[in-house]
Design brief:
The N and C termini lie far apart (about 55 Å). The protein has two domains: about 200 residues, Rossmann fold (3-Layer(aba) Sandwich); about 150 residues, Rossmann fold (3-Layer(aba) Sandwich), CATH 3.40.50. The protein has about 425 residues and is α/β, with parallel strands linked by helices. The chain has 14 helices and 13 strands.
């Protein structure tokens, strides 16, 4: 078997490495020559625990090779980005480009699996496009009911957590949605080669909606926690203490508030449902609005803290602790912490210091020239106001004494407890 993984990002590269580690020949494909060169050298272009060591091993074994051009394979696994645009609609340009490259390399008996999070119906659209451009091949739903030589098409969404991707790729249950029963069975057999969790069969549309629903569910619950945080702040209540007590109820499990929602899933996927049926998704859209507004609320908290201390921004050096979208990763995608820092960069502070042990340079944008990336010790000794945005392990272990005579805005409830 030869597997081609199309897209070597946060999902595609770990999946390619995992497959190669199981003894499968893998061709990784990415449009970025820099990514291809680095991976071929056995180096990852992002941080994920244990990924670098596994990548170096499979690269030296020859099981994983990478290129910028797609070529023939037995299985094609698509894992390219599907972000949202400014209009909150899915940008499927990368996915469409991949489908265009497949037209000339697919052959009878191939298995094509889409893993990228996509609007409901996308898997069908892929099959229909390929079917129209390759009339010589048999696809699910074509006039022929033959399965021999058919190009099978399925959807199997990733459902892993950055920081635990390799562990969860292997251990998590998977939802496999085929465009036909045979497509689903073939995809299920493929995942059984490296997944220890159960693979549940369904149709492609159900699998697509399942993925979107999982993250919309989490988004709605986070929005509820963030609303409670806003209410508690206005009423002078410690929201973390209150939630801990409320969760003593046997049927209540309120999440923790924070500065917003980031990452490649929760901040994006609910919009795919809203895009399909805007009139039927008021709750989902309201949750998105609540969570998108959180960074502005944090900036207001900072301004109130300054007023309470009878200070002015020009008198203060501010340290933002954390820039990534979640703890202990280097991922800045849709990060609310980054949004907060960028909003603070224009407030006229004497200094804006950024502390994040997982990044080695500030991203392009408003922070460049307006902020400095410094060590934790430097920030603790030079800043007047500490703003905790990400609960990296390093920040959670700080001794209470370091906060003496400092202004504190803790969006994670770590230093307030």
């Amino acid at each position: 078997m030869r597997v081609s993984v199309l897209g070597l990002g946060y999902i595609g590269l770990p999946t390619a490495v995992m497959l190669a580690a199981k003894g499968i020949d893998v061709l990784g494909v990415d449009i970025d020559p820099g990514v291809v060169k680095k991976v071929n050298q056995g180096e990852s272009h992002f941080y994920e625990p244990n990924l670098s060591d596994m990548l170096a091993t499979v690269s030296s074994s020859g099981r994983l090779t990478c290129t910028t051009e797609a070529s023939e394979a037995d299985v094609f696994l698509i894992a390219v980005p599907t972000p949202i645009g400014a209009d909150h609609k899915a940008d499927l340009s990368a996915l469409n480009s991949v489908v265009d490259t497949l037209i000339s390399v697919i052959h009878p008996g191939n298995l094509i699996i889409l893993e990228s999070t996509s609007p409901v119906g996308t898997t069908e659209d892929i099959a229909n496009k390929l079917k129209s451009l390759r009339p010589d091949l048999i696809f699910p739903g074509s006039w022929s009911q033959k399965t021999e030589g058919q190009v099978s098409v399925a959807y199997c969404p990733e459902r892993v957590l950055p920081g635990q991707i390799l562990k969860e790729l292997e251990g998590n249950d998977r939802i496999v949605g085929g465009l036909s029963a045979n497509c689903g069975i073939r995809a299920q057999e493929f995942y059984s080669k490296f997944v220890d969790g159960q693979c549940f069969l369904t149709n492609a549309r159900t699998a697509e909606m399942c993925k979107l629903s999982e993250n919309a569910y989490r988004d709605v619950n986070i929005a509820f926690a963030n609303e409670l945080g806003a209410i508690a702040e206005e009423l002078g209540i410690n929201v973390w203490e209150m939630i801990t007590l409320a969760n003593r109820h046997p049927r209540v499990n309120i999440l923790q508030p924070g500065p917003g929602v980031g990452g490649h899933c929760i901040a994006v996927d609910p919009w795919f449902l809203a895009q399909a049926l805007p009139d039927e998704t008021p709750l989902i859209q309201a949750a998105r609005a609540v969570n998108d507004l959180r960074p502005k609320k944090v900036v207001v908290q900072v301004e109130k803290k300054i007023q309470e201390g009878e200070r002015t921004p020009s008198d203060l050096s501010v340290a933002c602790f954390g820039l990534t979208f979640k703890p202990n990763v280097d991922d800045l995608r849709e990060s609310p912490a980054l949004v907060v820092a960028e909003m603070l960069a224009v407030k006229g502070f004497k200094k804006l210091l950024i502390v994040d042990p997982y990044i080695d340079q500030l991203p392009d944008g408003p922070l460049v020239g307006q902020a400095s990336l410094v060590s934790q010790d430097y920030a603790l000794s030079h800043a007047d106001l500490y703003v905790l945005l990400v609960d990296h392990t390093e920040f959670c272990s700080l001794e209470p004494g370091v906060f003496s005579n400092k202004l504190i805005v803790d969006t994670r409830g770590i230093w307030y407890r």
